[in-house]
């Protein structure tokens, strides 16, 4: 594995490249053109400048999270071809800069969903949390303003205000899209981009649905071993792979993550590792990475990654807000740096067994 850190770019992130460079063992960042819009072909000059900036700090770009997918592709509208063409142009631009891992998701309307972005824990830290009973009370039209209240003034990844302003229209667009249609549309998209991925050796890494069950009645197709297996089989190319996100898959305690890791041997192109504390079905909060702080056995899942020969980029996922840091919720420096240290420690111990 290669330890990395998510970085949203100068002007968008409270964390600097210099700080990231000082976290032991971190070799690269996972970044994006944060002000790009889904459906756009990325400007090659901007990608070049981003790469130069990252490399000047002594780090590398280990992958992109995310190149977001336009809703017309997910819905399967005739206009999707134009947006797929733009996606291919973006992949070519990245490939030419030697950037070979792209994380994306295929969730309708909302990227990840949480009911609280700053739930207080007994130690005074705050975390993102989810409670299905609260979500059931929320009108999806007002979801963005609910989220915004505790976003510390940051634009949240996947919650582009321009898209959220069209929320009613978005729900309308997806009304006839069920799991089968969504998977068909994903398959159509992947088949169209695979030749470019083959040419530039780009690994596509789909992010699981978060949480791992349908929210607001919208379809969900990347949520357990079976559904991920279906997607992998639909386009049987080694460049069609996944982001193994322990926090997203782990939102459903029935998901056996080490078993999922084993079933995806060779197709995990990126890993997000975080721990959750479960309170009841549909009710959890994010925890520190340390196993004993949450409900997940972090040793067991790192062991599964190690034993299946995982050698891609890995990053700590959301951290707690600690030591009075103010950052994008989940994306402060301190707790994620602690996460890196802990995950590096587990990996070193695994390698010396
Ligand atoms: C991330 C997602 O912050 C998060 O929860 O894991 O936003 C992730 O970046 C996207 O779903 C991937 O496209
Ligand atoms: Mn994730």
Fold blueprint:
Layout: E1 2-6, H1 17-21, E2 28-31, H2 44-56, E3 60-65, H3 71-75, H4 80-96, E4 101-105, E5 116-120, E6 126-131, H5 132-137, H6 143-148, H7 161-164, H8 167-173, H9 179-200, E7 203-207, H10 225-234, E8 240-245, H11 246-249, H12 257-263, E9 268-273, E10 275-280, E11 283-287, H13 298-307, E12 313-316, H14 334-351
Parallel strand pairs: 1-2, 1-12, 2-3, 3-4, 4-7, 7-8, 8-9, 9-12
Antiparallel strand pairs: 5-6, 6-11, 10-11
Helix pairs in contact: 4-9, 12-13, 13-14
D-mannonic acid binds near residues 245 and 272.
What is shown here, in short?
By secondary structure, the protein is of the alpha/beta class. 38% of the residues lie in helices and 18% in strands.
List key phrases describing it.
353 residues; TIM Barrel; eight-stranded parallel β-barrel; four-stranded antiparallel β-sheet; 12 strands; binds D-mannonic acid; binds manganese (II) ion
Task: Count the E strands.
Answer: 12
CATH class: Alpha Beta
Give the count of helical stretches. Answer: 14
Q: How far is the first residue's CA from the last residue's CA?
A: 17 Å
- Report the helical percentage: 25-40%
- The CATH topology annotation reads as TIM Barrel
Number of spatially distinct domains: 1
Give the C-alpha Rg. 19 Å
What fraction strand? 15-25%
CATH superfamily: Divalent-metal-dependent TIM barrel enzymes
The coarse overall form would be globular
Topology order in helix (H) and strand (E) letters? EHEHEHHEEEHHHHHEHEHHEEEHEH
